[in-house]
Amino acid sequence: MSIETDVAIIGAGPAGLSAALEASQIGARVTLIDENARPGGQYFRQLPAAFRLLNRSAMGRDYGAGQDLLSRLQDERIRLMSEALVWGSFEPGTLEIYHQGRCRRLQAARVVVATGAYDRPIAFPGWTLPGVITGGAAQIMIKSQWVLPGQKVLLSGSGVFQLPVAAQLIKAGAQVVAILEASRVGGWLSGVSTAWKHLGKANEAKDYLGTILKARVPYRFGWAVIEARGDGRVEEAVIAQVDEEWRVIAGTEQTLSVDTICTGFGFVSSLQLPRLLGCRSEWDRELAAWVTAHDADQRTSLESVFVAGETTGTGGHAVAMGEGSVAGIRAALDLGSACTDEVNARLHKIRNNLSRDREFASFLNGVSGIRHGIYELMRDDTVICRCEGITVEHISRVARKSKGNLRTIKRATRAGMGPCQGRICGSLIAQIAARESGRSVEELGLDTPRAPIKPIPLGALI
Fold this sequence. Notes:
Strand content: 15-25%
Radius of gyration: 22 Å
Shape: globular
Number of strands: 21
Largest sheet: 7 strands, mixed
Helix content: 25-40%
């Protein structure tokens, strides 16, 4: 079954929603595609329709803002496809979609990829124990079902994302044992002047901190979890002080009784789809990660494909919404929508706000960006590829022989060939390959994505 649209937008988070609203407003027919049952993405994630919310404020300000934004989707030019997976593309402008138990083909004149990012995995002894999850996973459980991941929760990571996760856990009834911030407090204090330029974000952080302080949660700078222990699930967390490169300072180890560990060391851009479409990737030194290359209009190396949001790098929901708005407008203008004075003024305002929001994001990324010492927590017997059960030692041995060739490592070990298709282990494998080959992760490049980029039933292809 084939569907036609002017602009196909993949991902209904802050970036995708903004792109859809802007493109439709100036006349384009939009198809908005998302894997979840309800639009909103991670930031604006909504409870299931069957739930009745008694206290909207308990869900945080982002929940309410999401409801207000989603109410604007009632536009006849916007077609929403929920629980739909874009799993491949074999021709320019053609997307293969798995939806309602069967495969469909979507023909689009312009495509906006807003597939977001996922938590950056950090491996340490015991990280595969039940009870060790990412901060993003904990947030999904609370936002989508109001379910706690555990009762005694330790947060360990870097960056401001730990604040809303901790506050939401506390409001949902969990005991947050401690928040460990790997970065030093000095870096955060240096940004006071920057924070004053962004009072909205500062007030948001103040609300989260108020909840955390009221619950008397210890907030430790220069600390990280280094091991999880337990019989069948997490029972203890070993923590330690870390230096400026996040290497463990010997003799500072402590043990905490916990049943859940939430890690949050930043995010990795979801590049599988833009790369499958043929978009060029580039290395972002500030983020120490691969992102999708794009110009000021959010246009990729392919004229008909745009990107917005965390697919272009971690910048927060305000940056994502600004990029989505630019991408939506430019995609619609490509197709003949009138570039009126009103549209030009709108673009100018969006870009000014986007510049300010990116400045703040750059400060946060500089302070809390990943330090390579944290990867030294991996031991030879630490499982890296959970799907296939492949250890550090196995990957290291092949990496030394192949001089860090990622494709050879994948073929020889099957690491990255399981259901997650390298989303969890891929960045860790690259770190091991770089270490063993003496090359940088940037020099190693990226492995080639293959369709389907996520598993789909074989019967749907028949």
